[in-house]
Amino acid sequence: MRRRRTLAAVFAGLAAFAAIGLAACTNESAAAPGKVDVVAAFYPLQFVSEEVGGGHVTVTNLAKPGAEPHDLELSARQVGRVSDAEVIVYLKGFQPAMDDAVEQVGGDRAFDVSTAVPLLQAGESDHTHEGEEEPAHEGESSTDPHIWLDPIRLAMIGQQVADRLAAQDPEHAADYTANASRLRTELTGLDQEYATGLATCQRRELVTSHAAFGYLADRYHLEQVGLTGVTPDTEPAPQRLASVAAEAREHGATTIFFETLVSPKVADTIAAEVGARTAVLDPIEGLRPGATGDYFSIMRTNLTAIRTALDCS
Q: What is the 3-state composition of the chain as percent helix, strand, coil, each rounded to the nearest 5?
């Protein structure tokens, strides 16, 4: 199970550090004068906050590049950043440490993006045989958190980010609204690329090491077959591996997808067993160190990978 770190020690440390002047250090990364200070819990929320906020905001992403954002642990300095932020953009239930921080310091400055869109239940888009139940994973949420993989849902989040920024900074409300509208147009275009690109495929089953693609599968009428649940560090039971291998053979799967921030070991095992290859499908939970792409470029790379795997014409 993932470790859950309470913030009691962190806040105690903050108090001690404050006595010796850490507050000055904590504010070094605060927003420039005249800009709204925004804290985003992980990359997709940083992306949408920067797209909507434009030049009127400074956005701090609490999850480091290359790190698994589910496992976020906040330093005393990061807790200070959350405490100082004018707008906090996070996803309740995705990062326990962030939930704790918001509970301590958030108030009406915190925006839980899961309140902006309809959510899927974990496994709702997964493929099962008649009479087969979805495997339960200890400690896993009952809802799928990966809402940003549906461009239309992300556009809805962008509009509400605009509303939050406008409430904090009414002088630039029109700019936030215009930026959110532009983002919606771009995301709608991306949605159309996916809908067209996946309309005529030889197969519809998406075999993934991590069941992070439920929203994408639901939007584009695919069936997700996940080796593990919605959290990537859950070890699949042997029965689940056998079931997925049988699914892959039955539907002639040529590709088993693994993601960028976790080991491909399980995907490699299944691929070898069924004679398939492996390929990357990025859930865009975070960027790799030194990555030059953004949400749009990664989503388009994912589309190319899916079209190849599913033999889409």
A: 50, 15, 35
Question: What does pTM read for this prediction?
Answer: 0.84
Q: How far is CA 247 from CA 51, 64, 84, 253, in A?
A: 40, 36, 50, 8
Q: Is 223 helix (H, G, I), strand (E, B) or coil?
A: strand
DSSP letter at 91 equals -
What phi and psi values does residue 78 have, to the nearest 5 degrees? Answer: -65, -40
Around Cβ 134, how many Cβ atoms within 10 Å? Answer: 16
Cβ atoms of 299 and 151 closer than 8 Å: yes
Instruction: Find the radius of gyration of the CA atoms of the chain.
Output: 20
Give ∠ CA 102-105-109 in degrees, rounded to 5: 75
Q: Which of 21-35, 134-148, 168-182, 248-262 has the lowest mean pLDDT?
A: 21-35
Q: Distance from first CA to last CA of the chain, Å, rounded?
A: 42
